[in-house]
Each structure stands twice: as C-alpha cells, then as structure tokens.
Amino acid sequence: MASGEASASASASADRIRVVGAWAGALEVELGAWTVPMLRAEVARRAGDVEPDRVGLIFGGRVLKDDPAGVSLQQAGLKSNAKVLSTLASPDRGKALAAEAAAAAAEEEHSNKLVRLWDAAQALSQRHSDGSLLDENFNIALEDQSGQKVMFGSADDMKALKMALMLHQKAKVLIKKNMYKEALDVLMMSEEAFSLCDNKLIERVDNVPMLQLDIVWCYFMLRDVSRLEVAGARLNKARLGFELSHGKDSTRFRLLQAARHADLALYVRLELLEGVVAYYNGNTEKARGSLSSAQSKYMQLQVPDEAIAMLTDMGYDARASKRALKMTGYDIQSSVDLLCEEREKKIRRREQDIETQREIMEQRRYGKTPMNKAVDMQKLKGLTTIGFEKYLAAEALRINENDAEKALDLLTNPELNCALQSKIQSRRKRPLHVLGAGPLGAGAAAPVAAAAAGNAPPQIPDLNAAEGDNQEQLVNNEEEAANNEAEALPNDTEAMANEEAVNQDQDMGDEEEEELIEEEAGASHAQGPVRDVAMENELANELTGDALDDYDIDVANEGHAIAEYLSLLESAAAAAAAAASS
After folding, report:
1. 180 shares a domain with 144
2. Which residue has the higher pLDDT, 41 or 13?
3. 299 vs 361: which has the higher pLDDT
4. Structural domain count, the chain
5. Do residues 117 and 69 share a domain?
6. pTM for this one?
7. Percentages helix, strand, coil for the chain, rounded to the nearest 5?
8. Strand, helix or coil at 466?
9. Coil, strand or helix: which one is 479?
10. What percent of the chain stands above pLDDT 90?
11. Are 428 and 495 in contact (CB under 8 A)?
C-alpha cells in the first residue's frame, strides 16, 4: 500500500515535455531536478543508445548546452508541455563537437593559467625588489655568469627584469617538454616584461637575444611558415643583441668564459633558423651558407663517448661531463677545471642559501616598518659595528623606516633611547638586560600577534616633521601600540613570547622557535593581498641559478633539421640543373 502511494506521488510530481526531430515522443521529467545532460542522455538512449555527444537539443530558438553548475531544466526555461527539438549528428561530427568543446575548455584553462603566471611573477618580483618582509625562506636576486649578485638601474628596472627572467625560465621549461604553443605565449609575456626595462641596461646582457631566438624556435617547431617575415626580423635582433653582449665573433664572451665555447649551441640554432628563413624567401645561397655553418658547429658538439667515459671514471656525473666537454672542445683538463669551478659554485650557493634563510628568519623577528618593509640588514650591521645592541638598533631602524641617520639620532639621544628600551621591556614582559643581549631580538612578537588579534596598527609617523619631536612621537606611538598589543595577547601566546626572549641566543634552527616565527609571520601578513602560493612556488622552483644552463642546449633536433634543409637545397639544385640541361 505504501509503495503504491509513493508511485502515485512520483507520477504526480513529474512534468511532461514533447521531443521532436531525431527522436520524437513524450518524456516525463522532473523539471526542477533534471539537467540538460540528463535530458540529452535520455534522448540518446531512446534514439538507439547513441553517444550523448551526438545529440543536440534546441528549445525556444536556442541551443541547450551542458552547464557545469548543474542548472535544472526549469532554470533553463522549460515548462510543462514544452517542445524540444532534437538533432542527431553523424558519429564523426559528434566526435568533432566533443573535440571542439574539449579544445575550448583547454584554451580557457590555458588563458587562466597565463593570467595566474603573470600575476605571480609580478607579485614575486615586487616583493623581492622593494625591501618587503618576505613570506618565503628565499630571496630572488640577479647574478652574473660568475655567480656574483648584480644591481641593474632603478628598483623598477630590477622588478621588471626579475619578472621577465622568471617568465622566460618558465617558457624554457615548457620548451623542454615540447609544449611549444604554451611556451610561445609565455615568451610573449616575458618580452612584454623586458620592454619595461631601460634598453641601455638590458643590451649589456644576452637574455633578450636569447628570448628572440626561443620565440623563432617555437615558430619553427610549430611549423608556422606564416610568421616568416617576423621571424627574420626577430633573428636580426637576436644576432645584433648577441654581438652587443658577446662582442664581435664572441670575443668578449670568450674572455669572460676563459676561452671556452659555451655559446656554440646558441649559434647552431641561430644559423639553422637563419638558413630556414632564407630558404623560404628563395635566397638559396644565403640558406646554404647559414646551414653549412650551422652543420660545422653542430659537429663540434658531438662529444666522443670515450671522453665522457674518462671523466665519469674520475667520479664526475655523465651529464655534467658531457656539458663540460661540449663547452671546452673536448679538452679533458679544461673540462675538469670547469667541473671543479661548477662544484665550488654549488658549495658557495648552498652556503649563501643558508645565510639568506637565516637573515630572513632574523628579519621576521624584528617585524615590519610602518610601510610594511623589512629591517635593512646592511644598515643594521652598520649600527651594530659602532657598538649598539642589535635588537635595539633593529627597532630604531624599524620605526624610522630604515632611515639610518634618524635611527642613529634616536639611539644617541639618552631620553629617546631610554623610552625605546622601555617600550621593548613592556613588550617582552620581563626585565631588559641591555649588556650582553643576544643578536636576535624578540621585539616583533607582541605587535605581530596583536595585529592578528584585530588591534589597530601603530600610526605611521610623519617622517618630514621636526626631527626631535618626530623621534619622540615615533617612540610614543610605538610604545602605546605595544601596550595595547600586550593586553590583547592571550596567555599562551604571551608565554611563548617571553620564552623566545629568554632564549634569544638559541640556534636559529630550533624547531619550536621556527614554528613561533612562522606563526607570527603569517599573522603579520594576514591583511596583505591574497597570494597564489602554488603558482609562485612553481615559478620559484624552476629558477636553477645555473649560469650555464641557458647555453646547455640539446641540439639533436637542430641536427635533424640541418640535414633536412640541406637535402632540400640539394634536391632543388639537382632539379634546376636537370631543367637547364633539357
């Protein structure tokens, strides 16, 4: 009896719609529960169990499309007794429609990822160029081929250059995966970022000509003959750029690289592409000259297995050995020297990375300036070398927006110095031992935790005000903020802050201390813009720091292409000779 009532109830709640066309008949559906994919599947089943992708549905003059949000038929506008036209595509057409839909979805996903890439590169380059207190335990810096950090132009130039290089590196990773179309889009974004730099600065380096070469290489691998004209212009820019940065016939590059031929693979690719462009433009003599030169250089990069075996027997990695041999013209001693240099660079880099992580952790202890910057460690070092305690000098720099002169005025003013120490004492909730204090202060713990609790941040002082009043106001503002923040601290957080102050000389690697610092860092950035952490990490993890990686190109594809186009030239010459003789 209960079963009959349920059936009657279900029947009463169903609506009837009429389907005409490829399949005709009446269907009982629940307009509020059924979706377009459900209706399509049912029509496909009744039409002879065909694939649902082959079924098209039209209602009220518009095509009913599958909505990812699961919109019901009622929300799509269908009512009881509605008439729906059904169409049935051929099997091939159905597959084509499905392929088009998949391609559109993939294109949309790719476009969204490009936007994320640009935003992530922009955010990373901004944070790592403007002195911000970093969220991550690394610092993105610019280095020359010897591994030395370099500075280029203004802060805006540095930001644009870092952004361009990160995007270029991402494109190189895609090229190695044979994802040329995706790489081309990222290369165009890198080119846009390079355009924001001062031309006089970037013409000293070979990154821009490398970018032009990579763009044309993607054209070639995609067999995009329609871009021949622009490809020729880009190759001209690349050759001119290499000449400016490497010198005529690479003389400057050889000098910097101790007479090594690290750039040989670049010129194999460049001359191959120049030959291809000349071939399609009908300039066979130029094409033959460029391709022959490329072939000669290509043969110089074919390393004998015996030479690799000699180096691997010495304990060197096979891949690194092959790279060293290619760049030194198979000279064993020069290859060993290069491998030793690279090993020493890795050791120095590892030491620098450890020092960078330690410095970032230390900066987090001191907190952010009123303008959300990190304490300048070089200026802090300058103050500590003349006798000021590190934690006190760091706080003076922090509240004075890293102005070393104002910080020095504050520290040398007995009254203001005393007020600053009182502020730090109140924050720590313990007596302050001025003499013998450890190098890393815990002064930032209370303000950071309080900011997370929702208290108003300290007022940003007027740095242009009269100097004496300004310094006093700075300390008063900070002291008032510290008192408010101390009241907002929960007991357990306050206890941790005190424990950190007592153990401020403890090693930076202590697990409990690191957890506290990470917690405070997270709280201090709670009000900042939302980060795309996954994309930022993807970009950062692809930065190798290997200066020779850009020149270490596998030229196997180039070798095949050189042979192919030389063969085409020979065939064309033979055909022309046969026509002339006849």
Report:
1. yes
2. 41
3. 299
4. 3
5. no
6. 0.63
7. 65, 5, 30
8. coil
9. helix
10. 25
11. no
375 in a structural domain: yes
Spatial contact of 64 and 103, defined as CB atoms under 8 Å apart: no
User: Could you report the per-residue pLDDT of 261-276, keeping only the tens digit for each?
Assistant: 888 999 999 999 999 9
Which amino acid belongs to residue 353?
Answer: D
Between 9-23, 133-147, 198-212, 489-503, the lowest mean confidence (pLDDT) is in 489-503
Tell me, yes or no, whether 34 lies in a domain. Answer: yes
Rounded CA-CA distance 438/436 in Å is 6
Beta 55-59 vs 83-88: how paired, if at all?
antiparallel
> Partners of 28 in the beta sheet?
16
The rounded distance, in Å, linking the Cα atoms of 195 and 213 is: 16
CA distance 260 to 43: 71
Residue 45 one-letter amino acid:
R
pLDDT at 2 over 60: no
Assess contact for 48 and 28: CB atoms under 8 A.
no
Per the listing, tokens 């955010």 go with 123
Which amino acid type is present at position 32? G
Question: What is the pLDDT at residue 544?
Answer: 78
CB-based burial label for 352 (10 Å; 0-12, 13-18, 19+): middle
Domain holding 155, by residue range, is: 111-226
CA 161 to CA 169: how far, in whole Å? 12
DSSP 149: B
The verdict on residue 518 lying in a domain is: no
Q: Work out the pLDDT band at 340, boundaries 50, 70, 90.
A: very high
Residues in the chain: 582
Same domain, 130 and 183: yes
Same domain as 121, residue 52: no
Q: Output the CA torsion 57→61→65→69 (10° steps).
A: -130
CA dist 469 and 465 (Å) reads 7
Cβ atoms within 10 Å, residue 549: 12
| Ramachandran angles phi, psi of 382, nearest 5° | -65, -40
Looking at the structure, do residues 146 and 184 belong to the same domain, yes or no?
yes
pLDDT (mean) for 321-339: 89
CA–CA distance, 521 with 372 (Å, rounded to integer): 12
> What's 56's DSSP letter?
E
- How confident is the model at residue 143, as a pLDDT? 66
CA distance readout (Å), 17 to 27, 84, 350: 5, 8, 71
Report whether pLDDT(6) > 50.
no
Q: What is the mean pLDDT of the chain?
A: 77
Report how far apart, in Å, the C-alpha atoms of 397 and of each of 243, 377, 474 are: 46, 10, 11
Specify the DSSP class assigned to residue 18.
Answer: E
**pLDDT tens track for 28-73:** 999 989 999 999 999 999 988 888 888 889 998 888 988 877 889 9
Q: What distance in Å separates the CA atoms of residue 419 and residue 413, rounded to the nearest whole number?
A: 10
Q: What is the CATH number of the domain that holds 39?
A: 3.10.20.90
Look at 250 and 118; give whichever has higher pLDDT: 118
Question: By the 8 A CB rule, do 93 and 55 touch?
Answer: no
Amino acid at 270: L
